[in-house]
Amino acid sequence: MESGIDHYLWAIGSHPGDGNIISFTATTLDCGISAEDTNIDIHEGHQYFITVKAVNRAKLIATTSSWAFIFDMSPPVAGYVYDSNPDSTEAEKSDVDYQSNLRKLSVYWDGFYDSHSTIKNYYVSVGTCSGCQNVLRHQGIGIVNNFTLCHIHLGPGIRYFTTITACNTADLCTSVTSDGIIVDNSPPTKGAVIDGVDIFDLEYQSLRNYISAKWYGFSDSQSGLESFSWRAGTKPGYDDVIKTVHLPVTNILIEPNLQQNTLPLGERIYITITAHNKAGLSVESTSNGFLIDDSLPVINKKPFLSRDLGSIVGESIIFRSTLKVKWEVDDRESFIQRQYLSLTSHEGGEFNSTSIEFNFNFSDEAYISICGMVREYTFARLDLHDGSKYTIKLIACNGAKLCVESESSEDVFGSPAKFQHNSSEFDKGDEGFVQTFAVETKNLGQFDNVGLRSPMIHSQFKLVPGGSLDLVRRCSALTCLGHCVCAAQGQRCPLIGTSCNIATLGNKNSILGVYDLINVDPTSNIDDKSYTPSNDAIASKWKIVQAQGLSPLWFEWSAGLSIRDTPQGIFDNLNDEVWHHAGQNYQVILNLKRGKFLKEYPVSYSMFIRAWYDENTYAQFKTDGVQVMSKPPSTRTIRGT
């Protein structure tokens, strides 16, 4: 104050009062700056002191030194920035990639440090790309290690990035950006759960220590699926059978080693699948459930030949190309789901089965697969052999896929009966060679073991002394069409010139009703049919529906196309016997020769019947026709929603 300040001396040194870094420099100013080209030997992280000396005009000196300062030329070391769930606690903090909160955005960080100085401030910015600031611009937040941005509206499906900038006391800064977080506020799309792993939903199973399921339709377009979990209970969503079990991302569940008898009997079991997305949201879907059935189906009646199609006697069949089988099977728990039929032959019973669509093989045998509801099945387009034996085998499976097997007794296919004769011949001169027959005079129309009647034979015998009968071999026609008792089989005698009285139109005699049959049991009621599964046999039965005038004495039969007024289309009018004797029978069966077949639908065939009222009067009747449908209906699978 007395003499005033003359000048200052300032220096920098590694200790207070030293000038070993920058020597003392004089200045009259209140500040000083070292020359730019001065070679300063200074090191990062070391302490340095500024010493100032004030010299007055009396040359007296006052000295003072600054607090130590550290030389720092490097920014802070980069740390790590983590996106966190704003709804989690401090203990639950971890880096996440997804969140469901649309109003908050949280981050925390660690690892930032500066070895030479200290970090004096952190800055935060938020954007929709790495380093961007289009959500929150660069803003200081002090010395903290977490930050939550509140009261904003975040867009679902958008990834947000948070940048943290750390600055030290030398105002050098380092920035680090998080890997981003996607906002997803919606649970996964709900899918569907199917019991079992087959194509179709499982309704029953037999095992009590096995459970399986599959599912489809679960998805999450924003955050994706993180995991699944499942449980099982006796009601939808319950876990009283199996508690929750976690699964990775998959679409199938197979648990083959449950504890014995884990799954209950008599109660529907529901499987619940929970899908979790990466934002922590979830959705559940439950199957429609399944039941346990560990009991076998019950065969109440073994497969047997139905009498209402081509059968006359017992377990036998007279139609070569078709047979009908019936059976009785039951399962009260899981019902009959699928059945399989097989037709097998014994020795001498081979048959042509190329037209049968066997679609299942078991134990080297071919089976036809049929649905579980039916209790009868008609085989068609067969080629059975006369007198051969066949067996029907049945496999019945319930909804739990437990099966039982059964088979019929032996079935016999028969051919028309024939008279047995010897092969000896007698020369009768101008009558040629003849053979002898031994027949019972009580019944000249024979039946075979399956009930087929032999062709009708009209013969006349003459009683000779001694009780023998001689066949009459010379005779004349008995009707206007040449019927006689001495002509060769299938032929007639020369006409005698008498004209026939055809009473088909305006018939004043008894009227017949003629009906197409497939049930050829003579004791059955008449059931007129329009369709037949047999392509090589037709049958007919007739009766008097209006009694008037003359009654029929005997009948003839034939067969042909329904669209014709006379028999055409089956017999060869030039080479075959078109009209056949029926005698006083009211039923006839036509089996075509092996290798010949009737045409399929829509072609219609009729039986033609001649009713003879006397030797010169007859009327012709015919059925309304039957159509052959030996091909099973075609099937196709349609899966609905």
Number of helices: 0
Strand content: 35-45%
CATH class of the largest domain: Mainly Beta
- Per the CATH scheme, the topology name of the largest domain is Immunoglobulin-like
The N- and C-terminal alpha carbons lie at a distance of 105 Å
CATH architectural type of the largest domain: Sandwich
Q: Total domains, how many? A: 6
Low-confidence stretches: 415-419
Helix content range: under 10%
Structural class: mainly beta
CATH superfamily descriptor of the largest domain: Immunoglobulins
Secondary structure tally: strands: 47
Quick one: overall form? rod-shaped
Mean of residue pLDDT?
Answer: 86
What value does the Rg take, in angstroms? Answer: 54 Å
Largest sheet: 7 strands, mixed
Report on this structure.
This is Jagged 1-like. The protein is rod-shaped. A hairpin with an 8-residue loop joins strand 18 (225-233) and strand 19. Helix content is 0%, strand content 41%. The protein has six domains: 5-70, no CATH class; 80-183, Immunoglobulin-like; 192-292, Sandwich (Immunoglobulin-like); 298-413, Immunoglobulin-like (Sandwich); 415-448 and 453-497, no CATH class; 501-628, Sandwich (Immunoglobulin-like). It contains no helices and 47 strands. It is an all-beta fold and 641 residues long. Strands 25, 27, 28, 29, 31, 32 and 33 form a seven-stranded mixed beta sheet that branches. Strands 38, 40, 42, 43, 45, 46 and 47 form a seven-stranded mixed beta sheet that branches. Strands 7, 9, 10, 12, 13 and 14 form a six-stranded mixed beta sheet that branches.
